[in-house]
Amino acid sequence: MTTDSHHHSLLIRQYIFLSSILLLLFVFSQVSSQDYYISNTGFLAPQPDGITYNAGSLYVALNATNRIVKFDLTSQQVSYIAGTGQEGFGGENEIATESPLRAPSIAKLASDGTIYITDCSNDRIRKIVAGNVSTLVSSISLSRPFGLDIHPISGDLYISELTSRIVKLTPSSGIAEALTLNGNGYNGDQILAISANVNNPLHIHVKSNGEYYFLDYGNNAIRKVDLNGYISTIVLGAFTAIGGDPLISNEFYYGGVGQIFKYSNGSSVLIAGGGVLDVDDVDAKTVMFGQVFGITLGVSGEVYFSDYGNGRIRKLVTCSAGTSYSGYTHSCVSCFGASGAGACSGNGVCINNDVCACTVSGFSGTYCNVSVTTCFNITSDQPTTCSGHGSCVSLNNCSCLSGYDAIDCSVNISPFAMSTSISSTSVSDSSAIGIQAIYSSDVNPTYFIWACTNCIYKDSNNQLQFSNISNTAIIDGSLLSVGTYSFTVYGIYDNGPSYPARVSNVANFQITVIKSVFSSSSLEIYGLPSVVVATNASSSLNIIIPRLSLDQTLINQFLSCSNSSTTCGLLISYNAALSITKNSITSVISSYNGYTMASTNFMNNTITFTPSLNFKDSNAYSGTEMILNLELTGATNLTFSTSVPIYSSATPPQSTSANSTGGVLVDVLGIVSPSSGTTTELVSLIGSYASSSLLTVFSYDTSLSAANSTSSSDVALEIVKSVVIDPKNPTTALTAIQQATSNPEAVDSRVITELTNKINNFVATLNTNYKEERALYGFVKSKLATADTTRTTEIISNVLASGRGNQQSKGMADNLTNLLILGEIATLLTGQDQSSDVNELTKVSFTSSQLDIAVAVFTLDKEMNGTNQMIGGDNSVTMPLSQITKQYNGFSKESATTMITYDQNIYSQSNVSVLTSTVTDFKYYQNQQVVTLENLSQNIELKFKITNSTIVMEKIMEYINSTTQFNSTSNSTQSNSTLVMACKYWDESALAWSSRGCYLKGYNLTSQEILCSCSHTTMFTTFVEQNTSTIPASVKETVAAFYYGQIALGIFYFLTSIVILCLLIIFKNEQPISSRLITPYLGMIALIVESLLVYITQRAMKPLNYSPVSALRNSPLKTFISTQI
To answer: Is pTM beyond 0.85 here?
Structure first.
């Protein structure tokens, strides 16, 4: 039906033709028929429409809610097949349950499992394949498809349209043909169906022989189209449901308002409806029900129909001869060959096959033929007579079964069974275990008698104590010596003074007390191989223990948990040792200790470590056995031990021959063909082995490296381009790239560009994998091998060694460092870790010729005293880690510090500075994100090793020489310079080395160390430089004023001298002879006085003394110079 109003209109039409239906009932009821019985399937939903049976389930169209649902007749479960509950159209190839429908009327299943639906108001047939819904292609546009059936052999769809047409559609091709005219009305029978008019056809039923029947609702008839295509009317009346067995011709079931009929060979018989009561499990013709819109047959011939008005799907069954219907089982049954009123000796009802329910008073028994008596108001045929433990032999006289007593057999005096929760187990000498007595639910023992038959106590005054009213005994292993002990328990139930007590059997169990060393099976261990192969080369282990499993009692004791808690946690310490057994002697090769947070959830009997325990080791392992011992200290101690065997490695066959032809190494097996040695041929040959492990052979060829840089660059570029780095097994690819770029001359800009892309993509893939594993496991299980990390570091170093691509190298180093942070398990730092004022952070580091990378990952849970130090290469950073964590709210967060040390200035500038140390890039992270430290309340200190001492000495000697020249040459340009050690950082905004926030704290030129102090984090280094920018502007102005004064006074004194000299010459004749004689002496005295005045003025006005030589002599560099000269 398209809408609810359409259904209502159908109801009205039914009542209009009620008189004709009653006439039919009178005629049909005269035909003898089997009785049908009605029952409810259990399906309830508003207004069920068309229904289809398939494999034990019903597919129901819910017109009102725009859904198709599946009802499992066995489990009574309803599941959605299509539709959302909202009216609409959702498009194509969508999930069927997420795509809306509009007034679906029926669903049919094809033999291949495809589900076809009449999406009536959307004017289309929808099909569901693998849970996705789409529109079935049709060469004819459909209009209000309502009825649908599938030919059981051809698979063709027969569709009735409410707009008065029958259509046949082939699903595989989409070809459709009209079987009737497309017009309303009635133009007669016994004509070809293609020429016939139909009026508002509803459901349709197709037979395997090609005949089909449909409800010509508007013409108040059920009509048939025979094998020759002629149409005829076979039943009159406005019916709304039809269905049947497609393999049986001339037979079907149909229904309308409150009745269902069976049509067979031209006759119709009422099989259900017409009654006055709406009940189940009775003769179906005595029942009243609502409008029927769907009929389908089950596998055994049962008839299912949709009771539209009552929102139910009901079932009709008919019983064969010799059986009768049972409302208990909703099926046909017989009892001992009889059925109906003759069953059960006439004194009862057959409710199931060979099961009688005696209904006549005074009779009982299997056949309802045994007379009964009474004991204490309960008849002898009842299972509860004599308390169910005896038989009623006469009035109020019980004969009790063995093990029961009292006049009504109500007192149980029989022994009862008892066992224990554990028959044999072990407990450590530092823990306890609970053993529970197990007994049946029909008894609740009054007392429990526990005993140990052979216990040996550590202290005779401190023994096991048992409660005689508890069904649980606590066996405390700390009270017992190591050994195996036998225990017993039995129970007693007190029946009071009048009757004997019930006593159980004696249950036995054994407890073995062992030293508190636990098996490694309790630990969840990653990274410890099951077998170690002995090698001469060093190999690495990375052992991770995230959790352990223990008995909950041991967990409670270890973490000091209360029984009322659901979760529990405790900061614990651990000590571990990795040992090797060789020649029957076991020696410790590595030891570990630290702290972690241990927590438990009482639902899973496990302890989780946060962070996980992480033990790393790198050695050449040889011997017979590797042993890992672990001791955990919480409220109690737990000790674990595990071992793995060490096997000798197989020795490969030795080969002393190797061939070399042209420019390519020839594999001893002849896999790689030789070339003539030209660059072109070599590059071509490399390309032919792209993505092959043999590509590594080419990277070791050095025959072309001496020819010219262009040739070697071409070869290196081809190798780098051809390599494919597999994140799961990158060793071969990384080795090839590392070797191909080992010659700095071969690493040009093309190689750097290609290499940078490959390395960054490789690291990015690993970064994604690491994050997924951390989300899944809490740590990274499949970390990049240490050797492969080292190879990656050396590849970056090769780029730096080429003198090109500094920024690409820095980018690759940063990405690799971020990956290392993700892969490391954080070390938990506590106040207990601070054994001194300065404590070194646990780190991983990787070293190459041009750079070093060091990473420390940790968690700080609270404030602590002292500072922490991180060492990377020859440099170190000392930091107030607790203050930094507090200032940046980092407590309990995963934090990290990193140091990338470059052997060259990757940010070179044109100035007079000389690099005196390596360049260190220091960073601080929280939750894998960089945190820029600024304006620290307590500075970090960086210690640098002087790496260019010879150049520093030359710079100092140049400075001394230039200063000497300044003292003897008045026009020297070095008059304002000073020689200084400078601590600087790279200012990203200014793109220059700057000293803001950093100062030189001191240096020791004997040990060749420089100490800097900075209030922020970035990239740092040190310089020795002639400082031309350290004189303040105010001082420069004062000095300028001083020189201006000198010039002015010099001019004044010069003019004064000239005037005096001129006057002496002019008036010489007027002077006495004696004055003339002393005039030259007066001139000499005037010059001396003038010089003296100039000197006095200079000394009086000079504000600062900037003598470079005196500055150098007063500088700490004097120590360095004196030790070098």
So the answer is: no
